[in-house]
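Supplementary Data S3. Sequence and structure tokens for construct A.
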Amino acid sequence: MDYAKVDKLIEKVELFHGFTRDEVVKIFSKGMTMRVTKGETVFYKGTVGSQMYVVLGGTVGVVDNDKVIAKLHTGDMFGEMALVNQEPRSATVVAVEDAKLFVLSEDTFKRLLTKQVAIRLLMNIIHTLSKRLKNTNSRLTS
């Protein structure tokens, strides 16, 4: 993997903050990437999933009740709650434009990553979820 690309990932993708190049390369070797075309559904609201995703390129939309409630771009992650709980997905995610995604499954997360790496990933996920909650609270109160 090209180190310049890895450095960009560490900078842009909140999930990888605090990781070394070698750790990010190792995480990528355990996960997989997928391409989705414009209009393709990544997952549906109400389904149970065990993967989280990171947008490596393109844009996806988070849809609830036929309304796009968020657009996610390069560096954004989604579906991370599937790694934390086994509840159904809270929204549908659809490619707004052709996109490339990194996929990390719960199985890979639990079995193949070291405890130290898994804890750091979870802390980054918690940080992202906390930031989203704070932003939502700010929108609701203003």
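Construct B, processed identically:
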Amino acid sequence: MDLEQYRQSLISRLGRLPEEPFEALALEIFRYQSEHNALYRHFLQLLSVDPQKIKSLEAIPFLPIQFFKSHRIQSGSWTPSLEFSSSGTTGQTTSRHLLRDPGFYRRNARSGFEHFYGPVREYCILALLPAYLERSGSSLVFMADDFIQQSAYPQSGFFLNNTEELVEMLAKCKKNAVPTLLLGVSFALWELAEQHPMGLSGVIVMETGGMKGRRREITREELHAILKEAFQLESIHSEYGMTELLSQAYSLGGGLFHPSPTMRVLIREPNDPLALQEAGKTGVLNIIDLANLDTISFIATDDLGRAYPDGSFEILGRLDASDVRGCNLLVADVS
């Protein structure tokens, strides 16, 4: 079997998740990337890790997420079809995630959503994503656009400065009992709640994060309390994703996230990047994203949180700059 045939076999197995045994597939993808990803191979060499001796998810070394800012991360040799990029203020170095197959990303994002919510086509998708819509390279906008295209409802669409139109559409959907998903960044949903409080029973309101630099920082719990009161809802849903991931996690309320079938979350100790934290204790998220087959599936993030035995996890904040430096001393050694 040549390399491309082997890659296609891995993609086929990804499509069979969650029935496919996750750990066995993850270990096979680890060995694939340790051989065909030059950056990751060098990283493992610096750690004196023999990939053939890795027998469990807990033993896999995770690549610091900062490398997405400094390197073009690829497993194998291929020409990118698209490049996702993170948001950032002027002068900041942003993350870049090269995409080999946009169709694969669309199918995986769709499958992850449908694992929890059912067919995308059955929802009217109303996307309130200012700031993200106003720049290029947003993976969130790319995903939302696919959801909108898949929707059976022609009313689905993006809303930027046409808030009055969004309010009118929400009222129509509620009146006609149309299954509706209002997908919005945190600051925009907060502004909508302040300017247009309305009863939205039956509507799924899903926040995607995204407050930094737009409004004062508040906790997710505080934001959800504001939204629940303004929209007369018992719960606010959440989506967890990032430029560096091709999979998402979802919370159906209460801030407890459940990963898509292609994703798992482990927690590492804040002061030791190679040691894992016990379930239920606060640490830093290590994310396995098997959909990142063509880049890197094992990412040490800067997000603080807790993970639980059932696979769910919480997001509690982010490491500060000094913590990031302390957790990624090896970054300087990898060229």
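The radius of gyration is 20 Å. The CA atoms of residues 307 and 313 lie 4 Å apart.
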